[in-house]
Amino acid sequence: KYDLEDRSLRQITFGPGPDHWPLRDPAGKGIFYVNGKSSGHLTEYKVQSKETKDVVSDDVHQPTISPDGQHLMYVALFSPPEGDLWVSDANGQNKVRIATSELIGTGRWAPDNFHLCFMTGEATYVVGADGSGLRKFPRTSGSCAWSPDQKFLYASSEEKPGVFNTWKWDLGVAGKVEEKVADNCGLVTDVDPSGRYLLSVGFLSAATGRGLN
Questions:
Q1: Residue 205 to residues 60, 134, 150, 165, 186: CA-CA distances in angstroms?
Q2: How many CB atoms lie within 10 A of CB 195?
Q3: What digits encode the pLDDT tens for the residues 23-63?
Q4: Do the bridges between strand 96-109 and strand 82-89 make them parallel or antiparallel, or are there none, so unpaired?
Q5: For residue range 109-149, what is the model confidence (pLDDT) as tens digits?
């Protein structure tokens, strides 16, 4: 509980937690809140046979399949916003934990089906599917995408509220060379096969009035 007058904080729930989404009791006698860890499964659905199969038995978010369909990366939450980034075979076997952090989310698989990019609250990373060759780029981002030749990584960084600029990093020089390629152009999500065009998505902004693009 936060007191607006004296700016003091007082803990009002106890126990193993975590506690989420407090709602005031309309009668003024207390609060309602959600208690306990969330749970869930990552499920595979076969369109033709309409069969389902649980692939991962954890609370999993943002699954991303490699281009060849053989590998999977996903975020397993254990105490939000903390989570683990995992890579596995498409059937959930041979799991490798890549990172533990305040993950913004999974990124994109590289064309070689081995390297991938992901984002945390402080930086953007490139790493191998076995956890090898981790490289950190100091600019945090909300999305990332690979060039078709895998020589460059594009990432969209929120440099002021609601405004995302897109940067290109040269992977051949340890990420030290960066170039801004677009201002206020949403989140980059993909690069066309020729490497000439970027696909970006913009979101509704109360400040600018811009919608989904």
A1: 28, 34, 32, 15, 11
A2: 13
A3: 888 888 888 888 876 667 788 888 888 888 888 887 788 89
A4: antiparallel
A5: 999 999 999 988 788 899 999 999 999 887 778 889 999 99
Nearest partner of 115 among 71, 177, 61, 175, judged by Cα? 71
Structure token pair of residue 5: 């007058």
CA distance 58 to 40: 6
* CA 3 remoteness from chain centre: 34
Both tokens assigned to 20: 């989420």
Residue 174 identity: A
Per-residue buried b or exposed e for 123-147, using 16+ beta carbons within 10 Å of the residue's own CB: ebbbbbbeeeeebebebbbbbbbbb
Angle at 71 between CA 65 and CA 72, to 5 degrees: 50
Look at the block and give the residue holding tokens 């090898």.
132
* Tokens representing residue 79 in the block: 């105490």
